[in-house]
Amino acid sequence: MSDSIHLWMRHESRETERRAPLTPADAAHLVAEGLRITVEACDQRVFPLADYIAAGCESAPTDSWHELAPDDAYVLGLKELPDDRTPLRHRHIYFGHAYKGQGGAAALLSRFTAGGGALLDMEYLTDDRGRRVAAFGYWAGYVGAALAVLHRRGQLTTPLRPMDRPALDALLEATEAEDASTALVIGALGRSGRGACDALTTAGLTPTRWDLAETRELDRAALLEHHLLVNTVLTTDPVPPFLTKADLDDTARRLALVCDVTCDVTSECNVLPVYDETTTWDEPVRALRKDTPRLDLIAIDNLPSLLPVEASTAFSAELAPHLLRLAEWDGVWPGALHTFETAVQAQETRYVR
Ligand SMILES: NC(=O)c1ccc[n+]([C@@H]2O[C@H](COP(=O)([O-])OP(=O)(O)OC[C@H]3O[C@@H](n4cnc5c(N)ncnc54)[C@H](O)[C@@H]3O)[C@@H](O)[C@H]2O)c1
């Protein structure tokens, strides 16, 4: 039984974030297994609060975890916490983006150290073979590639709004005639890569698929021959960049659009160090070069939110079995805590030096 575990699913502070890490159906299963689950009200969440209450969860006001969540509750979320610099005393399960030298990482880790809490980062919940157990990658890749295709076909309407897969597929299929674009997906064997390839296939294209083997010795000329590049690489070690500013100025390149699903913009591991800022739902496309020839960028870091039901349902199904194992503190959890503690130690060592 897991009756000592209290999960507190918080409100997401990003207005565009409609996903949830746990669906009402999976919450019902966890409650039946003895977990206590509190769900904060969240206007934009795709699943109504009433569905969680019907599933046996308790409710709490928006953003109330600071004051109301007991110290031993696990605060569950997806994206960033409000940036208010308060010390963090709980164990938080979410995507912290704090271990790869990203902007704001040191400040976030310091908040945990100050409050005595811990980050159990969803990106670092891994199995015995080091593979992530729960990820949104597939739908990120799917949506990213779909947006790229629609932009190339002049069919991308802004601002972007969440939809469901049948509606997105209908757009891709309706615009397929006469599109002779060549598309390259790098990281094609991963989750996002598979999603990207599936969307491109739905759109009637046949993507070139590169993964580790094909980039070991990067064929830059072949890369620049494609009209569209979708980057879905996940690397934790710095590698030589796939694109440089010199490539952007290459007048012979055919490459006209880059969709960076990875969005590791401020990280040391960024394989596309040719831009500094992600793009948004309001302005999803930015020109990196206006001529020589034109090169556009799509780099949206919350792509799966555009298909919130499909993305949440897939993610929750992967995560829920691991939440059940919090009580025994086995499986993915000790490793996630160790990763956090290692990051904190590394930060403290840097400060001492
Ligand atoms: N933009 C978004 O909204 C969004 C959402 C979810 C995930 N992501 C990001 O997408 C990225 C991919 O996630 P994933 O779940 O697909 O990861 P994954 O581990 O499933 O796949 C990554 C792939 O990259 C390949 N790879 C690693 N280094 C490579 C290299 N040097 N050359 C070629 N291929 C290489 C791996 O072999 C693997 O197949 C991550 O950085 C993740 O954070 C972005």
UniProtKB/TrEMBL annotation:
Q: Does the keyword NAD apply?
A: yes
Q: Does the keyword Protein biosynthesis apply?
A: no
Which key words are in the record? NAD, Oxidoreductase
| Pfam families hit by this protein | AlaDh_PNT_N
- Chain ranges passing through the membrane: none
What the entry lists under InterPro entries is as follows: AASS (IPR051168), AlaDH/PNT_N (IPR007886), Lys1 (IPR027281), NAD(P)-bd_dom_sf (IPR036291)
Q: What residues does the Alanine dehydrogenase/pyridine nucleotide transhydrogenase N-terminal domain cover?
A: 8-143
Assigned protein family: Belongs to the AlaDH/PNT family.
Can you name this protein? Saccharopine dehydrogenase
- Name its species: Streptomyces cirratus
